[in-house]
Amino acid sequence: MVHSIVIPLYGNYPSSLVQQLHSFIDSGFSIILIDNGSQVKDLPCTWMISNNNAGGLAGALNRGIEFACSHGVQWITLIDQDSIISPFEVALLREGLQHASATSGSSNVVVGPIINDITRPKRLSVSILKDSLLPARLLITSGTTFCSAQWPSMELFNEWLFIDYIDHDWCLRLRAKGYKFFQISNVILTQTFGQYHPSALCHFLGMQLYSPQRHYYMIRNLLWLMRQLHFPLDIRVKEILKTSIKLPLWLLVEPYRLENLTQLARAIRSPIPPIQDPVIW
Questions:
Q1: Range of the domain at 224
Q2: CA-to-CA distance for 1 and 34, rounded, in angstroms?
Q3: Top-confidence residue, 280 or 72
Q4: What is the DSSP string of the chain?
Q5: Percentage of residues of the chain with pLDDT beyond 70
Q6: Cα dihedral value 41, 46, 47, 48, nearest 10
Q7: Cα distances (Å, whole numbers) of residue 97 to 2, 6, 177, 241
Q8: CA 13 to CA 140: how far, in whole Å?
Q9: At CA 54, angle to CA 83 and CA 261, rounded to 5?
Q10: Is 89 left (phi over 0), alpha (psi -120 to 50) or beta?
Q11: Is 0.70 topped by the overall pTM?
Q12: Are residues 183 and 233 in the same domain?
């Protein structure tokens, strides 16, 4: 029995990562770190892979998963470098995956945790904390857990997307192939999304502060997804509404407004790949 944790690294990783890696290794997990352009300094791990940011976060995840599968790993959990989750909870994800497969009568199952944004902590209800499977439509990449035996029939993360919306695209393509997604309700992963927004209005609206470069990928990738047949109407409407609120605020109240305008213009002019093959939704 081998369970690997795949962690892409980029930029400055949090100091808490070192202690978390030690705890994973002490609990019997193998750790695959993908150096995507980080300031790596002797981090504890089982394997370290250099990816040079090829394909961005999507490329790092693909390289890590492929490496894990080639080394006989049975279960794989993907975790962001700034995520906080205990080894016990990762083991619960694996147990939840096995339970979900048995309950659903299918091996085409992917599970993930409940997500708690560290900048906007939620009061989690007692019902959520009970040991149960919650059907999910989408999962973020961090905490996503699946059986490696399914990988050959699954989809690669789209490396053209690079970073933003790679989880949306991946989950929706797998759902079109009959995969089922669940959140394991007694597993809580704490995650940081962007930085605290200096604008009180933006913070009130639930916005986080991202770089102009990230805004480029957000807009470019959303424009591409709007053309894809596996992207359902209700999610299209939701993302359009969210972006229509965010975009003017990026240009009016955020730092680096000129850079934001430049990157948004670049995103709109960016060549878009052709529509993918039709899928049944």
A1: 200-269
A2: 22
A3: 72
A4: --EEEEEEEEES--THHHHHHHHHHHTT-EEEEEEEEE---S---SEEEE-TTTTHHHHHHHHHHHHHHHTT-SEEEE--TT-B--HHHHHHHHHHHHHHHHHHT-S-EEEEEEEEETTS-----HHHHSS-EEEES---STT-EEEGGGGGGS----TTT-STTHHHHHHHHHHHTT-EEEEEEEEEEEE--SB--S-HHHHHTT--B--HHHHHHHHHHHHHHTT-TTS-HHHHHHHHHHHHHHHHHHHHTSSSHHHHHHHHHHHHHS--PPPPPP---
A5: 93
A6: -10
A7: 14, 17, 18, 34
A8: 19
A9: 80
A10: alpha
A11: yes
A12: no
**Spatial CA neighbour of 17 closest among 115, 88, 90, 84:** 84
> Is the pLDDT confidence value at 125 over 80?
no
Q: How many domains does the chain have?
A: 2
Task: Give the pLDDT mean for 128-143.
Answer: 85
**Do both 144 and 235 map to the same domain?**
no
* Whether residue 243 sits in one domain with residue 130: no
C-alpha span between 265 and 100 (Å, rounded):
44
Report the sign of the C-alpha dihedral through residues 30, 151, 8, 140, in that order. negative
246 shares a domain with 172:
no
Instruction: Examine residue 278 and state whether it is found in any structural domain, yes or no.
Output: no
